[in-house]
Amino acid sequence: MERIPALDGLRAVAIAMVIGYHIDNSVMPAGHWGVVLFFVLSGYLLTRLLCSELDEHGRVDLRVFYLKRSVRLFPALIVFCLALLAVGIGWSRVAPAVGHYANFARIVGVDLGPLTHTWFLAVIAHFYLLWPLVISAVPERHRIRAVGLLALVAIAWRVIAIQVVSPGWVYNATDTNAAALLAGCYLGVARPKPWRFAGWSVPMLLALTLVPAFGEEGWAFHWGVLIAIALAVVTVQYATTHPAWLENSLVLWLGEISFGLYLWHYAFLRLDIPIWAALSLSVVTAAASWYLVEKPILRWPALSDEGEPQVEKERTSPALPDRTPSTSSR
User: Fold this and answer.
1) pLDDT at residue 202 tops 50
2) Are 69 and 128 in contact (CB under 8 A)?
3) pLDDT tens across 97-141, in order?
4) What's the pLDDT tens digit per position in 258-269?
């Protein structure tokens, strides 16, 4: 199955949205929509990977699957957390990140400081844990209907949750963020033909992140995520057509180191240093993380992709907005 480099390029777009939001959310109020793009992309890629393995081998090797997801999440995260511990960040802030419950820690009001953005990793980890079990239980002939129904239920629950649970829960919890993840999963099984004008989704997504209403607490902040999910789905479709600009070498490189950028940029932006210095340190540290930690570990024989279906290789994607209506001041 064809590997599509432009899907890696989308990570560069998403991390740029998130970093822009963290630099100045008055300039890019809805830059947190970058997380929606990450979620949709992760759902799409992981579903393609799992379905390919199911179709070829009749089952998912859960031991190998969980091992590979763990080595994509933990090594760089542990290095990051050790660095923060070394400069005096308390274990009470590090533990939720390493334990992948940072999203629920935020909901109950824990101040995670420079690890606030790791709530996203918690949601991704929960998805990695549960989705292989769910998709493995669905017969191939029922996949599109079953995953489509799950996606509709998840979207409906997000709509209901906006009305009945706290804003912090809506923003951070795994169940409410399942709407974007399962929209990507449905795209992965249905694989509709890309919309003729799908390329407009990227400038539209970026333009809407500049609309102040989508960054403020209130109806637009919460309901705007549904718009973001729809645009992210079309954007992933667009990337499957191999647009040249998303396969530019620089864009691909930024996508390649995006997990490191996710981990480090927020910590550097919190320092009392110029923005250019924070961004430079973020890129240098992210590159070091990729070349010295992440990439060497992925070359271990036990993690070889030999014998696996040749699908788009899924990597963990970077950061999310640090704020949430119930746990952060504005």
Assistant:
1) yes
2) yes
3) 999 999 999 999 999 999 999 999 999 999 999 999 999 999 999
4) 999 999 999 999
The structure's pTM equals 0.90
Residue 311's pLDDT band (cuts 50, 70, 90): very low
